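in:
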């Protein structure tokens, strides 16, 4: 295996990212199926020392013909109608004679993709982008001056930070003057800040038939049509020059970038899924608090029940973020958040106690009177406690360098209280219709 530190570091980065995906929940793994497959392929690519060169271009520019010419045999379908490359596929380029230092069994692979004007979206577009992201070197084939679609594609490909070679193909269709003019325009005008001028080369991968004048020994002449051999010398020379100079570094850097991108994707998805689930939990428990506190006719039990609901909510949120928390710890955290948010001030506590007392004096008959204000107050309090607890768990069971009071007050000031209460009112309204105490006079 190559001895370079960068190669080993890249290998370790891919393996670590794979481990992160394997440690995800089943739901997360289902959403990360493509990333998992890509990382496994990248690991295989690294350990085997496979160099991947992906070929892009519009339909009918001669991508498949270029691959055939480089490989030295017909391995790709060439059709005069064009547009017949329907998926990404690979072919070994055995004729290069190149192998990564220390990996004699390594091989160079050419990767063909659908025409760029066919991959604006959908599955094939994703496949082509994935191929570009995994590749070590990119060939872009054109057969004329660059149009807007080609230029846009080249700018996007350059953003992958891979060596990029632009091949002006079908040069047999142009005179020498036309060819030189095209090269100058592409190198110094179209791609001046996108591709180095020396990375724009010419080729005639599938030259057209040409009429030759054959002169015999006796001086007689005859005309004969022949197809010249493909001319891809400049393309092959530049590829091998780049590989000889920085092959191992290219592969290591590419793998490290790929692993970093997938790691960011894994992290972002886990945060997204957990936050979505956390919000569902918060709303569910806030609604339960509205019902449990507001519609409970038993005095004192409504307050105690509300405290238990907040603790249960925090325990559930901890599980969402892959953490475990005891009931007593959850109760203490709920109380500290409520206190930090000012939900346990003397006025709030007195109001809650008064409503609970009123229930006791009326033997639960005042539930209709107290349900809405007491239930909404409790539900809104749970919503704030839940939002603060989510922040706490998002930051690895810490306040991220801030105080609980700062976090709680920020959540309070940025929360649209009216919309929260409106949603909770809807829930309590549904329950009141079916609540047996609502029928008492």
């Amino acid at each position: 295996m190559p001895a370079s530190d960068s190669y080993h570091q890249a290998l370790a980065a891919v393996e670590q990212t794979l481990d992160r995906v394997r440690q995800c929940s089943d739901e997360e793994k289902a959403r990360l199926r493509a990333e998992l497959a890509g990382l496994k392929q990248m690991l295989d690519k690294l350990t085997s020392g496979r160099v991947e060169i992906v070929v892009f271009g519009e339909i009918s520019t001669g991508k498949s013909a270029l691959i055939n010419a480089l490989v030295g045999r017909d391995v790709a379908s060439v059709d005069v109608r064009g547009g017949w490359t329907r998926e990404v596929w690979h072919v070994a380029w055995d004729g290069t004679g190149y192998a990564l230092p220390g990996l004699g069994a390594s091989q160079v692979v050419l990767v063909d993709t659908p025409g760029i004007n066919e991959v604006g979206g959908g599955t094939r577009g994703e496949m082509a982008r994935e191929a570009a992201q995994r590749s070590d070197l990119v060939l872009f084939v054109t057969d004329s001056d660059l149009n807007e679609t080609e230029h846009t594609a080249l700018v996007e490909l350059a953003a992958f930070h891979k060596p990029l070679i632009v091949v002006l193909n079908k040069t047999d269709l142009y005179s020498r003057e036309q060819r030189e003019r095209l090269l100058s325009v592409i190198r110094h005008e179209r791609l001046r800040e996108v591709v180095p001028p020396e990375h724009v080369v010419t080729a005639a991968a599938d030259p057209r038939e040409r009429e030759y004048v054959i002169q015999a020994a006796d001086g007689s002449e005859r005309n004969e049509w022949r197809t010249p051999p493909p001319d891809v010398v400049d393309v092959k020379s530049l590829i091998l020059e780049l590989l000889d100079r920085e092959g191992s570094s290219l592969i290591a850097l590419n793998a490290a970038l790929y692993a970093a991108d997938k790691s960011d994707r894994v992290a972002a998805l886990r945060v997204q899924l957990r936050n979505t689930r956390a919000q569902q939990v918060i709303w569910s428990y806030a609604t339960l608090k509205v019902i449990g506190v507001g519609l409970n006719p038993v005095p004192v039990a409504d307050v105690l029940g509300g405290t238990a609901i907040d603790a249960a909510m925090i325990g559930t949120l901890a599980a969402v973020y892959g953490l475990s928390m005891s009931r007593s710890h959850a109760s203490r955290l709920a109380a500290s958040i409520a206190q930090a948010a000012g939900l346990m001030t003397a006025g709030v506590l007195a109001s809650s106690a008064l409503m609970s007392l009123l229930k006791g004096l009326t033997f639960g008959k005042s539930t209709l009177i107290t349900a809405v204000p007491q239930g909404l107050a409790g539900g809104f309090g749970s919503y704030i406690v839940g939002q603060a607890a989510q922040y706490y768990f998002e930051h690895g069971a810490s306040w991220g360098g801030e105080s609980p009071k700062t976090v709680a007050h920020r959540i309070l000031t940025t929360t649209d209280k009216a919309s929260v209460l409106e949603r909770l009112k809807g829930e309590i309204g549904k329950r009141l219709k079916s609540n047996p105490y609502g029928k008492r006079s």
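note: The first helix runs from residue 5 to 22.
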